[in-house]
Every structure is written in structure tokens, then in C-alpha cells.
Recover the amino acids of this structure.
């Protein structure tokens, strides 16, 4: 019996692509291996968003060198966002000759063919396309049964000056709404309770080629699919988060009142240099509007510290905005220059020491706000979708609230069941409670 092992780096889009790669391998008769050393085919699906993502990948390639020494018949494939950059492919070809198959983000459907050719001739296979449509009709081996990713659009035309994604994922394209709804209906029939609509910029759904209705219209249709108890979506770009999205969100009980709204910076001049196309005022205005339209809304964000030219004053604007927006959660990153982006060559870099210092102050403030927000849950009863046993303590169950907060709790039930949990304690990153 042939076995495969896939390692996925990066965002949910990559995770969903890996589910498709796994689906194609299973259709070819491969079974999922428990560990990489058992694999006949190993696939590394890469992310290139920051330098440390690239570094982790190259570190992993070293591990696979040892595995291939033990099992020279193992086919090693690498794919994903890093492969869309010529200099990385060149580096792999020159320094990591034991990589057998290289493909990109636009041709994952070609993988079975590339693998077959490699298996027959034991030669190298390389195919990268500069852009292409979203592959339809691929089998998927989904990671979870209670929740599922549904890609609605792919690519990005926003060209934030620091970001590699437009290069890695190509131009924005949307899937036809009929195919998206068919996918959601199929998931509902299999008992999936929660779906996450995915795109680099979901608000652009239907604007660029492919989709024929707006994101708000799609969201409302998705909410009407019987059996889907929770709908989430990400990522929303603040510049085009429209009122009709809020109208739809407030009209359907099964659309989670949580919005991932990357702020990146609280300084209007840095936002301009980042090409984000909104200001501090318009961002905070949007947060205010979301909170007033959606009761108990949960807003999460992404923040970059140390973008070139960021002064202490700019950074203080970011801290002030965080206080004012009072985010329920945030992902924080230190600026990482990416080759091929507009900010790559900027000379006004921020010294490391200042970045580290700002980063520490930022996380300190965020964690204080997150804990305060979490403490607000204590004493309330929350609807929690069970995900399984807690990884910290197997006598506890773990699940998520509507607002995507992790809850560890006593009780019984299977993954996919919606239960009520009385919250007794709050930590920065999770809640504790008892099932009622
Ligand atoms: N489409 C999403 C984000 C995709 S990347 C959006 O528009 O928000 C996820 C996050 O990584 C970004 O929000 C940003 O905060 C961070 N990021 C992207 N490029 C980066 C870079 N060069 N350095 C540091 N952080 C970066
Ligand atoms: Fe990157 Fe900006 Fe596009 Fe998000 S919107 S993927 S940060 S270019
Ligand atoms: Fe990384 Fe590509 Fe996602 S660069 S963040 S895996 S779109």
C-alpha cells in the first residue's frame, strides 16, 4: 500500500489546497501516512509571506534529505507560494537536488500527472504557471468533518507594498456562485456544521472575473443552506467592507459575528506607504460601525511592526488605535522585506532594536486587552461547537464560540455537536467552563 505525507505551511488557502492534493493522492490509491518516514510521496506546500516562512521550509528540506537517504524511492514534491518565485526555484534546483517534483499554486490539478511521470521515469518534474483559474472538481480529503474551508476567490490585486501574495497567487478570480453553493450543500449533507469562506480578499468576490454576484449576496445564499450552523469568512479588506455585508450578517443567526479586519498600522502615513487605501480615521470608523450594527461583534486584526519609515510617533498611533478598536484578538508580525514587492528596496528601515521594543509593547497591550475581553465572558453561557478532546487535558473537551474563542470545558459530546457551556474562567487565549 502506497502512502503519502503532506506538510502545509502558511494560511488557510494553503490548507485548503493541501486538502485537494490529499484528495487527488487518495483518488490515486495512496493512503495517509502517520509520519514522513513512512511516506512514498511527501509534499511540502509552502508559504512565502515572511522570511521566517522561507527559512522554515529550507530547514524542513534538510530533514527530508535524511529521510530520502533512508528511503531513496520516496518521491519529494514541493509546491505552494514559494514556488511562484523564480529565484526560489533556482535555489532549490541548485542546492536541493533531491527534490523530485516542483509545481506552483496555479496548477495543483497537474500534480497526479507529474507524479505519475516521475514514478515511471524517475526523473525531475517541474511545472510552474504564472497564473491560472481556480481548479474545479478536484476530490478533497478534508482535515475535519465538523468544519470545512470553502475557497470562494483566489489571488489579490491590492498590491500592498510589503506583500508577496499578489505575486504568489496571481490576479483576483472568483468561483461561480453555483459551484460554491453546491460545495456547501454537499458538505451540509455530509454533516459539516461550520464553513469558512476563504479568499485573500473576500470583499472582492464577484467584482473580478468568475463570480456573478456580490460577496454579500453570496454570503446570504450560503447562510440559507440547510444544516449549516455557522458561517465564517476571511479575509476582509477594510477598504471595501460594505454596509450590505453588515446587513446580511445581522439578518442571519448562523453567520458568526466575527470579522477579521487587518489594520496593519494605525498611522495614516504608514498606511499610505503600505498602499492600504484607507486611513486611521476610516478604519476606526468601520470598527465603530461594525460594533454598533452587530451586537457582541468580535473583531480580530493583523498588525505589522517596523514597516520602513515607521517612527515612534507612527507606532504610538498604532497603539492608540488598538486601544480604541479593542480587538478581541490579533496576529502581530515584524516587517519582513520580500523580494519582488515595492517596499523591498526601501532604505529607511527601522533598526532591529526599535522593532523588538515596539513588538514587545504591542503584544503586551494586545494581551491585556484580550484578557480583559475574555473576562467579559465569565458568567455567560456560550454556544460552543465541539472540536474534540482538549490537547492540554484529555479529560476536557475543546471547542469554539461564535466569536471564535477557544473554550476548554467539562462535559460530553462528539466533534460537530453544538452545546451550551457556562464560562467560569478566562485566560488571554482561551476560556474555561462547564457544559450545561
Ligand atoms: N489578504 C490578507 C492577508 C494575507 S497575509 C489581508 O489583506 O490582510 C497575512 C498577514 O501577514 C497580513 O495581514 C500582514 O499582516 C502579514 N504580512 C504580509 N506580508 C508581510 C511582510 N512582508 N512582513 C510582515 N508581515 C507581513
Ligand atoms: Fe497581501 Fe494586501 Fe493582498 Fe492582503 S490585500 S493579500 S496584505 S496584497
Ligand atoms: Fe503564505 Fe501563500 Fe497564504 S504566501 S500566507 S500561503 S497565500
Amino acid at each position: 500500500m502506497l502512502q503519502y505525507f503532506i506538510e502545509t505551511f502558511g494560511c488557510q488557502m494553503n490548507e485548503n489546497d493541501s486538502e485537494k492534493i490529499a484528495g487527488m493522492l487518495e483518488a490515486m490509491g495512496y493512503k495517509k501516512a502517520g509520519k514522513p518516514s513512512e511516506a512514498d510521496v511527501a509534499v511540502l506546500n509552502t508559504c512565502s509571506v515572511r522570511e521566517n516562512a522561507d527559512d522554515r521550509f529550507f530547514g524542513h528540506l534538510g530533514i527530508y534529505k535524511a529521510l530520502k537517504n533512508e528511503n531513496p524511492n520516496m518521491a519529494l514534491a514541493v509546491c505552494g507560494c514559494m514556488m511562484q518565485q523564480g529565484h526560489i526555484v533556482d535555489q532549490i534546483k541548485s542546492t536541493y537536488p533531491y527534490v523530485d517534483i516542483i509545481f506552483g499554486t496555479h496548477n495543483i490539478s497537474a500534480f497526479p500527472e507529474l507524479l505519475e511521470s516521475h514514478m515511471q521515469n524517475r526523473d525531475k518534474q517541474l511545472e510552474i504557471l504564472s497564473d491560472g483559474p481556480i481548479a474545479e472538481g478536484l476530490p478533497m480529503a478534508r482535515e475535519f468533518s465538523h468544519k470545512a474551508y470553502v475557497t470562494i476567490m483566489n489571488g489579490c490585486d491590492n498590491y500592498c507594498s510589503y506583500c508577496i501574495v499578489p505575486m504568489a497567487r496571481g490576479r483576483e478570480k472568483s468561483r461561480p456562485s453555483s459551484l460554491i453553493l453546491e460545495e456547501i450543500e454537499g458538505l451540509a449533507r455530509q454533516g459539516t456544521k461550520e464553513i469558512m469562506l476563504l479568499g485573500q480578499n473576500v470583499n472582492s468576490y464577484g467584482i473580478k472575473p468568475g463570480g456573478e454576484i456580490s460577496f454579500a449576496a453570496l454570503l446570504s445564499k450560503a447562510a440559507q443552506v440547510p444544516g449549516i450552523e455557522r458561517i465564517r469568512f476571511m479575509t476582509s479588506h477594510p477598504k471595501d467592507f460594505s454596509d450590505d455585508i453588515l446587513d446580511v450578517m445581522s439578518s442571519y443567526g448562523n453567520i458568526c459575528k466575527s470579522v477579521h479586519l487587518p489594520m496593519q498600522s494605525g498611522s495614516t502615513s504608514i498606511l499610505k506607504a503600505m498602499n492600504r487605501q484607507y486611513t486611521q480615521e476610516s478604519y476606526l470608523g468601520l470598527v465603530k460601525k461594525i460594533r454598533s450594527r452587530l451586537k457582541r461583534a468580535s473583531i480580530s486584526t493583523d498588525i505589522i511592526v517596523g514597516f520602513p519609515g515607521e517612527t515612534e510617533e507612527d507606532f504610538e498611533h498604532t497603539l492608540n488605535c488598538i486601544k480604541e478598536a479593542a480587538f478581541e484578538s490579533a496576529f502581530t508580525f515584524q516587517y519582513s522585506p520580500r523580494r519582488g514587492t515595492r517596499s523591498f528596496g526601501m532604505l529607511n528601515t527601522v533598526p532591529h532594536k526599535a522593532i523588538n521594543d515596539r513588538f514587545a509593547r504591542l503584544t503586551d497591550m494586545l494581551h491585556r486587552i484580550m484578557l480583559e475581553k475574555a473576562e467579559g465572558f465569565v458568567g455567560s453561557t456560550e454556544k460552543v461547537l465541539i472540536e474534540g478532546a482538549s490537547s492540554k487535558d484529555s479529560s476536557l473537551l475543546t471547542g469554539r464560540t461564535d466569536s471564535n474563542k477557544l473554550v476548554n470545558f467539562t462535559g460530553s459530546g462528539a466533534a460537530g455537536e453544538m452545546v451550551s457551556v457556562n464560562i467560569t474562567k478566562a485566560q488571554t487565549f482561551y476560556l474555561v467552563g462547564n457544559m450545561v
Observations:
- The longest strand covers residues 381-389.
- Residues 10-11, 13-14, 47-49, 81, 164-165, 168-169 surround FE3-S4 cluster (ligand 3) (CB under 6 Å).
- The two ends are 46 Å apart (CA to CA).
- The mean pLDDT is 96.
